[in-house]
Structure formats: structure tokens, C-alpha cells
Amino acid sequence: MADLAPEISIRRMKVEDVPVVHALDVLSFNLPWSERSFRYEVTENANARTWVAEVPQPGPARLVGMLVLWFFLDEAHIATLAIHPEFRRRGIARRILQIALNAAYREGARRAFLEVRAGNQAAILMYQELGFEEVGRRPRYYHDNNEDALLMTLENLHIYLSTQ
Fold it and tell me: Which H or E run includes 103?
């Protein structure tokens, strides 16, 4: 599949995006967030930085990816990241993550962390390629199947950003 990263546009999520973002989350995860949760992140959570990825097409662009990042002090926590199944493995997840981390760095974040399913090898590989390292394991973190989560961190965010 072709790398779509240069063609996509990344922008902040708007409340009007929430129904499509929620549908994407339902399509992507066994434990999706509620539509209300996404609406809260966009409209009320001062610590949330919400992003969407769109691909051009005739008419309105198609929303194919989303990311929610929580910003605390000097840390960026990737809360959720999903790409529509038809558009995976085309560089979109990497691109939206890079843009979100760059923005967080400009706001003062100096490290980032996330949890990822231990069995999600594609995501783990992408995070490792971006400099994240496994620093722990949360046993039985995912309640749908009791799968462990790997805790991954990206220390020295400025180093990461300067090499991109």
C-alpha cells in the first residue's frame, strides 16, 4: 500500500467530528470510548489535545484517523490513537503522532508515554521506530480479554523532535 502521509491533513478535532471519531473508535477497538467521552475531550478537558487525520477525496475530506493526547506538566500521554482499517500501514498513524508530539513539545512536554496491547506488534514496532522504549507492563490491563499492556515512554522529547 502506498504511503499516504504526504497527502493527508492533520488538524485539531472539532465537536462536529465526534460522531465520525466515535464510529472509527468502535471500528478499531474492542473497548471503544463513548461518544460522550470524545465530546468531553474536545469541549471540556483542558488537558486534552485532540487531533484528526483526513484524506482528500472529491467533496469533503474523509476523516480516517484520530488521536487524543493528555498534557500534564511536562508529559504527553497518548490516550488513544486509531486509523481506519482501510488506511492502515500507510504512514498516517506515524504522521498524526509526530504532529501531536511536536505540538506538545512546543507547549512544554519533554517526555511522552502510552500503553499498548502486548499483542499489537504493528503498533509496538511503529512506536519503537519513533524512539519509544518499553519500560513496564500492566498485567491484565485490557478488560475485554485480560491482555497485558506494555508501558512505553519516549524520554528527551527534544532529541526525538530534532532528528525528524
Answer: helix 92-107
